Amino acid sequence: xxxxxxxxxxxxxxxxxxxxxxxxxxxxxxxxxxxxxxxxxxxxxxxxxxxxxxxxxxxxxxxxxxxxxxxxxxxxxxxxxxxxxxxxxxxxxxxxxxxxxxxxxxxxxxxxxxxxxxxxxxxxxxxxxxxxxxxxxxxxxxxxxxxxxxxxxxxxxxxxxxxxxxxxxxxxxxxxxxxxxxxxxxxxxxxxxxxxxxxxxxxxxxxxxxxxxxxxxxxxxxxxxxxxxxxxxxxxxxxxxxxxxxxxxxxxxxxxxxxxxxxxxxxxxxxxxxxxxxxxxxxxxxxxxxxxxxxxxxxxxxxxxxxxxxxxxxxxxxxxxxxxxxxxxxxxxxxxxxxxxxxxxxxxxxxxxxxxxxxxxxxxxxxxxxxxxxxxxxxxxxxxxxxxxxxxxxxxxxxxxxxxxxxxxxxxxxxxxxxxxxxxxxxxxxxxxxxxxxxxxxxxxxxxxxx
Length: 451
Hints:
By secondary structure, the protein is of the alpha+beta class. It contains 9 helices and 22 strands. It folds into 3 domains: 24-124 and 260-268 and 370-433, Baseplate protein-like domain - beta roll fold (Phage tail proteins - horseshoe like beta roll fold, Roll); 128-224, Phage tail protein beta-alpha-beta fold (3-Layer(bab) Sandwich); 270-364, no CATH class. It has helices at 70-73, 124-131, 142-154, 181-190, 223-227, 252-255, 270-276, 300-303, 351-364, and strands spanning 24-31, 37-39, 44-52, 59-66, 81-87, 94-102, 106-108, 115-122, 134-140, 161-163, 172-179, 203-210, 215-222, 233-236, 261-266, 280-287, 292-299, 332-337, 368-375, 385-389, 409-421, 424-433. The strands form 4 sheets. Strands 1, 2, 3, 4, 5, 6, 7, 8, 14, 15, 19, 20, 21 and 22 form a 14-stranded mixed β-sheet that branches. It has a 3-stranded mixed β-sheet with strand order 10-13-12. Strand 12 and strand 13 form a beta hairpin. The two termini are 16 Å apart.
């Protein structure tokens, strides 16, 4: 376990950071549909900004303590723009633009003339997605198709699309029949094969904050590309009752990476994983032109080393003894295909290449889930890789390594909530991983760790 002399992987802005949960709120401005601007800096109660790896856009909610009846006097109708700017001292300013879309409830005080309500916010692209339908034929690589859909149907020019993982340049053709842009993009993601590793067919399209320029951007990436990133920050869980060294005073540099609360949500549901195709499966394809049938099998034990993972070791014990990968009929699919559906394109579907692998990979990354609340850090964004330094939850002696070898390690950040209140700023993360840093121990429960 780390001690008080621990040096975090990312320098803490000690020259400006004045204490745990410190932040600088630069701007909260609401612009009405007729162009009137109102500063909400003095009336906000809290702000929550959400990023989700499995959602196409960011969202937020803003709680207002209103003694001026802004709701009716402006009025707030669900057509407004909200601009938010803030920073963790020492890091760059983050800038967000959202559209309002709902006020679920208003609570009127029975002791004074004020009310409180929460305004629901979403990135503008959430509305753009409902404004247009994609009805178009596309030919080429799937990343080029996604770029075209984004540019023609979603982009207003303020955000870039980053193609972090190029797809195969194999010529393919799809006709999108009046689908919303995000639905079309997600459909193409499910069928995309990576140019870097054909086995990595776990593409996602999501919006994230870019701490380099303080703005948001859209990203097309495989999960494999994300898990290969360097660890951006190390978090430690070191509450007072678990300290081994009481001599040093706690300091801002350490508190900046110290976890306030931690919860382990799921360690793996084997029954659900078997039924959903994580460990094994069979796909039967039928070419309606050639009348040929083909069965393709997937065994996770055989596939594990074909893609990159957060850690190097198999996630459930010794792969030699794991039996779930032999349940080939636990997830059985039938998928038709049509050779030469489009002239000069022999196989446009590639069902046998992506269908089983994508289901397995998408389920595997979620096999272990952890949530943490830590001091606010505006530079943390969805898709980052962080390291958790977790102590053993057991009695230990002074000579025992305090770090838990199973719970500690690298995790992928799939959800971020930046929460700003009058009392301070915290960052909540949902973290997942698909592998283990150390092989599963072969010692019995009575053995002394690291003896």
